[in-house]
Amino acid sequence: xxxxxxxxxxxxxxxxxxxxxxxxxxxxxxxxxxxxxxxxxxxxxxxxxxxxxxxxxxxxxxxxxxxxxxxxxxxxxxxxxxxxxxxxxxxxxxxxxxxxxxxxxxxxxxxxxxxxxxxxxxxxxxxxxxxxxxxxxxxxxxxxxxxxxxxxxxxxxxxxxxxxxxxxxxxxxxxxxxxxxxxxxxxxxxxxxxxxxxxxxxxxxxxxxxxxxxxxxxxxxxxxxxxxxxxxxxxxxxxxxxxxxxxxxxxxxxxxxxxxxxxxxxxxxxxxxxxxxxxxxxxxxxxxxxxxxxxxxxxxxxxxxxx
Length: 307
Prior knowledge:
The chain is mostly helical. The protein has helices at about 5-20, 25-45, 60-65, 80-95, 100-115, 120-130, 135-145, 150-165, 170-180, 185-215, 240-245, 250-260, 260-275, 275-285, 290, 300-305. It is elongated and about 70 Å long.
């Protein structure tokens, strides 16, 4: 027995086992289903088929088949084509009115009647793009291109879907193909240029860290050491005691600390031993000149606004 047939039988057994484990069957039905599973396992040796959790179930495969009637590869009859075309007209009107969800359903119904017409997939892709379902739009465009490799509008809408996903490099390739197939279409040409601009912007954004590094390299800042190791470290500004003594909050805190009883005897001792230093320090805490120096300079912007 070939491998495909064994996988199908294994999928059927999995489906039956799920029903058996669901608990929704009567005891009589459970007994009958257990016998059926055992009989199939005895008739078909599916032990060689490895079960994979990522493998779709039988129901999922069937749903996918129903949702993608193009897999049937059947040419529609004349009446089916007429029904599909009528649905497409209604869908186009819905698109024009902004009823994108309704248009999506109508295009899907048209595909069910005529699964070999690439126009319906391309139009449904437009509806999906309007609904920001860009991944689904990409799938529909690819299906339209598979059915008609020279369908320029499908390439154009595929480029639009890729732009919605911010995959501008792919969009450029799609618009190039659309423009090659229809060189007189100004829309394809304009969209191609816009996609190229987006690619350039992305390249600039990605290269910004390198530009920043170059601007801080030894080439942008001449070295004064003469050994080519890059610029020397920037010199630190000298410590200014006036900045410290000009801080009114710090002065108030220091005054409170020096006024503590535990420090009074030490203060008097210092005053006796080094009177000049202590007097200068005491004056720095009490002189109004230092108290006034802590105020920030007048804001130039504020001054202009006041004028």
